[in-house]
Hints:
Blueprint: H1 6-16, H2 210-213
Amino acid sequence: MAEITRKELILALMASNGSLRLSGLDLSELNMAFLDLHSVNLFKANLSGANLSGANLKGADLDDANLFRVNLGGSQLAAAMLRRADLRRANLREADLYGADLSGANLSTAVLRGCDLRRADLRMADLSNTDLSGANLNSANLRGANLRGANLRGSDFRGANLSGVSLSRADSNNVEEISSQLSQAILDGDTILPDGSRPSRPVADTLKNDSELSV
């Protein structure tokens, strides 16, 4: 149960002049659809099950936030900070995450269909079993990320850093220009390569530790 109502939140936003701090608050299940929450501090806030569809969260601080099963469909999250956030089962369909920092975030089973993830930081993020079909990951940093079982059909990985990425059991059929970096990915016999073929034998490179993965 959220600690405040939608009306109370709107009044607080109007009085804050863009410097509202909601860190650590319980905002679970709250309807915040289409609200202007840009640059709001939501560090460690509980937003599980909340409706943030169409909301403006550009530059917001969502580090370590609980975003389990949150609805962020069509939201604006450009340059937002979501480091180590729990985004399991979240709906991020067609969300704008340009330049967002999702390093270490848990996005397992999330829906990111048609997302703009250009230049996003997804280092060491858990993207296992996510739906990334049609997503734009141009120049994104996915170093050490887990894409095991992800749906990558129609995604754009041009210029993305896939060093040490696990694509085990990922459906990467039709992914554009990804093959040049697959030599550093973890593959198995269930991986579908960009040309529709499968690797002749598993490649099991050991992921580097966090310090080696830093840029």
